[in-house]
Amino acid sequence: MTLREVVLAGYRAVFEQREVIFLACLAVPVLGTVAARIGKAGKTDADGKFIASVVVGIGLLALVLEIVAAVIAKSLFDASLMDGDALLLAAPVLCLGGSLFGIRWVFPLNQIASLKTAIDVGVFAVACIGVLWLFSKFRGWGIIFFGSIGQLVTVGVLLIGLLKRLYKRAFGGGDPGTPTAESFRQAL
C-alpha cells in the first residue's frame, strides 16, 4: 500500500463520517463552554481555565489538522479547497470560532494558556519566515545596504535578540512572572 492509497483511504473514511465529525465539532464548543462555566463556579477559577484551555486547544488542533490536510491534498493530488466537502471544511473553523466565542463568554481570552501559547508560537513562526525571506534576498554581495557595516551588525544583533526572546516566550516557559512547579516547591 502506497502513501497515496493510505491518504485516499483516510479521506474516504473521514468522508463517510462527515456528519458525525461536523456534529462533534459543533458539540465541543457548546459542551466545553458549559463545563468551563461550571468549573469557574468552584473555589478557584483553575478548573474552569483548564477546561477552557483544553477546549480552545482542541479547536486550534482541529484547524491545524485541516490546514495540514489541505496542504497534503494540494501537494499529492493537486486538489483545491473547492474540491473538498463543505461539512468537513467548515467543521474545524466552526469548532475554533465557537470555542473562542463561548470561552470568551466565561473568561477573558488573555487568561487562556493554550491561546497565549498558540499566539506566541505563531508570532515566532512568522518572525522566522520573515528572517528566511530576508536571507533569501541575499545573493552574495548582490544586495545594497544603505548604511555602515556597524548599522548592519546592530540590526543583525537586534534581530537575533528578538528571535531569541520570541523563542523563549513560545517554547521556554513564557514570562518570568508565570508561576511554575519549581516556584511552588520553593515556596513550600
Protein model, in words:
- With about 190 residues, the protein is an all-alpha fold.
- About 75% of the residues lie in helices and about 0% in strands.
- It contains 7 helices and no strands.
- It has helices at about 5-15, 20-40, 45-75, 85-105, 115-135, 150-170, 180-185.
- The protein is flat.
User: What is the multimeric organization of the chains shown?
Assistant: single chain
Structural class per helix/strand content?
mainly alpha
The low-confidence parts are none
Helix percentage range = over 70%
Characterize the overall form: flat
User: Whole-number radius of gyration?
Assistant: 22 Å
Biggest pleated-sheet summary: none
Number of strands: 0
Number of helices: 7
- Tell me the strand percentage band: under 5%
Task: Average the pLDDT over all residues and give the rounded result.
Answer: 83
The string of secondary-structure elements, in order, is HHHHHHH
State the end-to-end distance: 57 Å
Question: Can you give me a brief rundown of this structure?
Answer:
77% of the residues lie in helices and 0% in strands. It has 188 residues and is an all-alpha fold. The protein is flat and about 60 Å long.
Salient structural properties:
about 190 residues; mainly alpha; single chain; 7 helices
How would the blueprint of this fold be written?
Layout: H1 3-16, H2 18-40, H3 46-77, H4 86-106, H5 113-136, H6 149-171, H7 181-187
Helix pairs in contact: 2-3, 2-4, 3-4, 3-5, 5-6
